[in-house]
Amino acid sequence: MIVMKFGGSSVESRAQIEKVLHIVRARLARRPVVVSSAHKGMTDALINAAKAAATGRFDPSVPVNKQRAVAESLGCAPDLLAPFYEEIADLLRGISLVKELSPRSLDYIASFGERMAVRCIADFFARSGVPARAYDVWDLGFITDANFGRARPLPGFDARIKAMFAERVPEGIVPIVTGFVGRNEAGEITTVGRNGSDLTATLVAAGLGAEEAQIWSDTDGVMTADPSVVKTARNIPTMRFEEAAELAFFGSRVLHPSTLLPAMEKGIPVRVLNTNRPDHPGTVIDFDTDAASPAVTCIAYRERQVVLKISSTRMFGEVGFLAQVLAVLARHEVVIDVITTSEVSVSMTTDDLGKLSRALPELEQFGACEVLPNRTTLVIVGQGMPRQKGVAAQVLDAMAQAGVNVEMLSYATGSVNLSMVIEDAHVASAVGVLHHSLFEKAR
Ligand SMILES: Nc1ncnc2c1ncn2[C@@H]1O[C@H](COP(=O)(O)OP(=O)(O)O)[C@@H](O)[C@H]1O
Ligand SMILES: N[C@@H](CC(=O)OP(=O)(O)O)C(=O)O
Q1: Rounded distance from Cα 374 to ligand 2 centre (Å)
Q2: Which of 12, 64, 97, 403 has its CA 20 to 30 A from that of 384?
């Protein structure tokens, strides 16, 4: 059995869904379970309509017309999705009346994209000769906690999905399952977080004990840098889980940050593939050590970060200074990513200026606090980095060539990533020069 996740770009239109049909049809012998995202742009359209409703403007036309256009192009009967259109309108009307949009209502409205997409894709598949049936993932046991916007399945999911899958998915039928969404024990709809269909796919793959989880997107697998920024980016044939996890965490949209954990736990390889070029082998992510792997595998970055710098002579020789600072940050739920220290200052990055601002009054007891917004964490990832001399020199040289000031630099011994903090305004030039230096120059 394989789990195949198709992202929004793969199910954007009839032309794309026809590609998905051919890809799935060619793999029927491997007993595919399809996990689908909403059509590209649909989740944004639903969320925007909900936000507008919360200011009193009731208008369901953008998401409903978008969905209707895809369903009509696929030849689906109008009544297939009519109840969903009505429910979306009712919900938006309710939000516009109370002018309130809770995380619970936001998940409810955002869930419609996946729920409608799987129904029209399964309907189209069935009429095209691939026996398929649509499933809301909760009907296969995906019952979550009540953390709206970042829900996770409750313990026992693996046993539940195995049992419910055996009971509800007939032999020979391709299940087309909703990504992204879930339901809590009270029956309320939740989501696992934006771009979370990748995570649904690896959770389903782990629960069912699939032989492989495939993430089908619009690039030739994972590339040495975001190909929409670096035109010369190239495919990475194999990656280790640790490398891919760093890449996902530090901002590459191609994989959701939590995607790899369920697969890592069960040792299930994850393959990233291109719906537009299905014969390309893409990228395989697993545990195999490739001793010949290059020092640097890829470049990733996360923009709109905030740097907090605390300067204090109290740090000098004092036991527990950092622990006290981190305890305050933890109490305010500030997540810290990169941290560097000297004897008189400590700098760290986070992505939540709001939470950091709430922690500031307490932090000021430790020293002078400086908050620097609009920063980017730029990360060089590579399994082979610990055993290659001169990588840091090459990286810093490239940054100097690009005229970019490196404000923080962090590398731990044996680590697979080297992180730097720069200004947001310098990202494109820094990534371009760095990619050229690390991947394009004769080395
Ligand atoms: N290192 C990378 N390799 C491949 N794609 C990347 C990388 N970094 C960023 N991306 C971006 O991720 C995009 C795919 O993610 P996304 O738009 O969420 O796709 P999907 O619709 O399939 O979920 C690519 O089009 C690419 O621009
Ligand atoms: N549709 C959801 C979930 C998702 O994973 O989408 P995509 O696969 O298109 O990134 C979102 O836009 O957040």
Answers
A1: 25
A2: 403
